[in-house]
Amino acid sequence: MSRLAAALRALVLPVAALLTAVAAPAPAQARPEPKAPREFVALSAVDPTIVQEIRYLTPHNFTGRPIDGYREPVCLLTRPAAEALRTAQRTLLRRGYTLKVYDCYRPQRAVDHFVAWARDLDDQVMKEEFYPDVDKSRLFLDGYIAEKSGHSRGSTTDVTIVKLPVVPTRPYVPGEPLVRCYEPQERRFPDNSVDMGTGFDCFDTLSHTLDPRIRGEQRANRTLLKETLEKVGFVNLAEEWWHYTYRPEPFPDTYFDFPVSRRSLARH
């Protein structure tokens, strides 16, 4: 190789390397998580006396796994809904009871998780407890699973009543024997809730708030919850004794997807 060719090669190689480096794509950066609007609060900041048992953070739910988007055992709600729960709680405390929430705001990614699970007809790990008499292929048709949830708008909560003093519910152990959610309370999975006739998230018509088969103490407990919450602005979903939405909703048409975490409320 001549001295001129060698000199040209020595000049061209660094320039080519520089061009290659410039053309290479920048490393992908993690997208920041969405944040909650300022209208959202942690329920514990509004009323720390309300018991929280956030089921979808745990495997004790109809999928048998923790649900996408749940990062902490915290109830997030729009402020008007949280303040209405505080008013209802004051009424119940005077009667020797407390509210307990199972779920509050639910991100869209969690709803998507439910939808994907419902489409997998082979995954029936928790059927015996949560949907013993419902064919999984009918979960969409029967309205138990949907692609959108009012929970994602931030003013809906799944809630029950617990008698004071509160005895904690024991942890669920994955793989333990399952009992149908409509069995008598002494046989179902132990829950410190008063007897509502079924367990939470029981996919059965017995969960309909005013089902005529629910009588006596069970009927009285459902009525107490319903009347207490309706007086402060909540509306019950007739198919689920535990499901209540505060009206008017601050975000009636918005389905949020920020994670269930205190960090979602951080102000920047």
Which structural traits does this protein have?
single chain, 268 residues, alpha+beta, five-stranded mixed sheet, two-stranded antiparallel sheet, 11% strand, globular, disordered N terminus
Give a description of the structure:
With 268 residues, the chain is of the alpha+beta class. It has six helices and seven strands, in the order H-E-H-E-E-H-E-H-H-E-H-E-E. It has helices at residues 3-23, 43-46, 79-94, 108-119, 127-130, 216-230, and strands spanning 40-42, 51-52, 76-78, 97-103, 156-163, 234-236, 243-246. The strands form two sheets. Strands 2-4-5-7-6 form a five-stranded mixed beta sheet, covered by helices on one side. Strand 6 and strand 7 (243-246) form a beta hairpin. The protein is globular. The termini are far apart. The model is unreliable at 1-24 (pLDDT under 50).
